[in-house]
Amino acid sequence: MIIRKTIFTLMLLFISSVALADLRIASFNIQHLGWDNGKNFTALARVVSQYDFVAIQELMNQEGIDRLKSELENKTGESWSTIYSHRIGRSTYQEKYAFLWRDSQVDYLDGAVVYLDDRDIFAREPFSARFRSASGIEFAIGNIHVLYGNSMSDREPEINALASYWQWMSDTYGGDSNLMLAGDFNLRPGHGAFNALKQHAKPCLLYTSPS
C-alpha cells in the first residue's frame, strides 16, 4: 500500500495478518470537512480518487461528505458510496467518522456501529463496519480519532484501550484475521502505549508530522 502526504493529514492504519492486496486503502483526517473553510474539493477528490476505500476523520456535517462524493464521481465517472456516524464528542465540539468507497471495488455488508464505551475512555468513540472487496474478501474496519489533549498523558489512555477495542471488534465481527483499525492516533506508532495493540495487529507505517 502506498500512501503519501498531501493536503490531508495522513494517519496510521493497523492491520491483522490478512493483506487486502486487491484494494488501495487510506485513512485521512480531512480537517473540519464540511465547514466553510475554503477547502478545494477538486483537489481533495484528485487525492482520494487514488484509493478504493478511505476512512475519514473530522467530518463535520453531511454536506461535506456529499460534496466530496459528488466531486469524486465527476472526476472518476464511477459510483461511490459512503456511510458515516452521528456526531460524537464529549464537549460542544463534535465530529463524525466516515467511510467512503468505490462501488466497483467494495460492498458494504453490515455492522455499522459506534462503540459502546461503558468506561468512558474515548472522547470520540470509534466507529466500525464490515465490508467485502470485489474479490470476495470480507473485512471489518474501525475508525478512531484519538484525543490530542494538552499532553501525552491525555492521549495514552485511549491508545492503551485500543487493544480492548480490537478484541471487541474480533468478538463482534467474528475473528481478527480480517480486521483493520484506521485513524488519527495523535501518537507515533513506536510509542509504548501501542504495545498492547501490537499483540494483535501491526502498523502499516504511516506517520506524518504531529497534529
What does this structure look like?
By secondary structure, the chain is α+β, with helices and mostly antiparallel strands. The chain has helices at about 40-50, 60-75, 150-175, and strands spanning about 10, 10-15, 25-35, 55-60, 80-85, 95-100, 105-115, 125-135, 140-145, 180-185, 200-205. A 6-stranded mixed sheet has the order 7-8-9-10-2-11, covered by helices on one side. It has a 5-stranded mixed sheet with strand order 1-3-4-6-5, with helices on one face. Strand 8 and strand 9 form a beta hairpin. About 40% of the residues are buried.
What would a concise description of this structure say?
This protein is α+β, with helices and mostly antiparallel strands and 211 residues long.
**Portion in beta strands:** 25-35%
Largest sheet: 6 strands, mixed
State the helix count. Answer: 3
Uncertain segments: 1-10, 207-211
Instruction: Give the overall average pLDDT.
Output: 88
Which descriptor suits the 3D outline? globular
SSE run: EEEHEHEEEEEHEE
- The count of DSSP E runs of length 2 or more, i.e. the number of strands, is 11
* Range of helix content: 10-25%
Q: What value does the Rg take, in angstroms? A: 16 Å
Strand arrangement in the largest pleated sheet? 7-8-9-10-2-11
The end-to-end span amounts to 23 Å
Helix/strand/pairing category: alpha+beta
